[in-house]
Amino acid sequence: MHDIENAIQGVIFDWAGTTVDFGCFAPVNAFLEIFKKAGVEVTMEEIRSPMGMLKRDHLKTMLQMPRISRLWEEKHGRKFAERDLDLLFKGFESLLLASLKEYSDPLPHVLDTVRALKDMGLKIGSTTGYTDIMMDIVVHSAREKGYAADFVITPDATASFGRPFPYMIFRNIEALRITSSWKTIKVGDTVADIQEGRNAGVWSAAVIAGSSQMGLGLEEYKALPEAKRQAAVNIARDAFMLAGADFVIETMAELPPLIEKINGLLAEGKRPNAR
């Protein structure tokens, strides 16, 4: 047992792709459909690149990508305008809200891991790229399936400054009464999650299985031959480490031992983002 004054006190999870919705497919499907309706075919790579951002920011980032911007001009005869972004987001939100409940199953190991963390005396926070109205559905449905966080916040509560800004993490630290940023670990499945954690000065851990970064559904992931699975894991690990993650784990089952490891580092005087 570690001295609570010099140990992790809280874990702040992302939602889709980390604790629920293996592969983060609810937003992916909605992005695909809304661009298709606008006459612009987008790729999975283009959709997943900004994943983790506030969804309106995500849409804007996609529209600013050179290939998509060019296709938009060819289709509509002009550059995209703010009104286009508003209409796209309205359509995206409608599609997403209609499907979110279907994508709220907890990922493998999440329920057992959260129980273990609570047994360790840790508080469970969360941040997201979803809005309040989206999270109302996800939180309620996930709770029915056994997963709940002690604190939930969306960018709606931080003046729409979502990731990579650190403000949602700061609000978690305040609400959960965590005594220092370095006694906190952020766990997510996107580069934006890692950037958010680094900007907040907390430990940042990325989880690979179920991540948007890997982009595979549960059955696809299970069906991968070992060599291909390991190759996919290594690609995701490299992307997370390049983004500045302190640690990368393959599944949520590795989180409790990782926290014990971090507690050991804290006892030695180590701090997050040391590289």
Structure description:
It is a single chain. This protein has helices spanning 25-37, 44-48, 55-63, 66-76, 82-99, 110-119, 132-144, 167-175, 191-200, 218-223, 226-242, 255-267, and strands at 10-13, 123-126, 184-188, 203-207, 247-249. The protein has 275 residues and is an alpha/beta fold. It folds into two domains: 4-24 and 105-267, HAD superfamily/HAD-like (Rossmann fold); 26-102, Orthogonal Bundle (DNA polymerase, domain 1). The protein has a five-stranded parallel sheet, sandwiched between helices. α1 (25-37) crosses α5 (82-99) and α3 crosses α5. It is globular and about 60 Å long. The two termini are 27 Å apart. The mean pLDDT is 96.
In N-to-C order, the SSE pattern is EHHHHHHEHHEHEHHEH
Fourth-tier CATH superfamily name of the largest domain = HAD superfamily/HAD-like
Give the neighbour order of strands across the main sheet. 2-1-3-4-5
Determine and state the CATH class of the largest domain: Alpha Beta
* Radius of gyration over C-alpha positions, nearest whole angstrom: 19 Å
CA-CA gap between termini: 27 Å
Helical percentage: 40-55%
Largest sheet: 5 strands, parallel
Short summary:
The protein is 49% helix and 8% strand.
Features:
275 residues, alpha/beta, Rossmann fold, DNA polymerase, domain 1, 2 domains, five-stranded parallel sheet, 12 helices
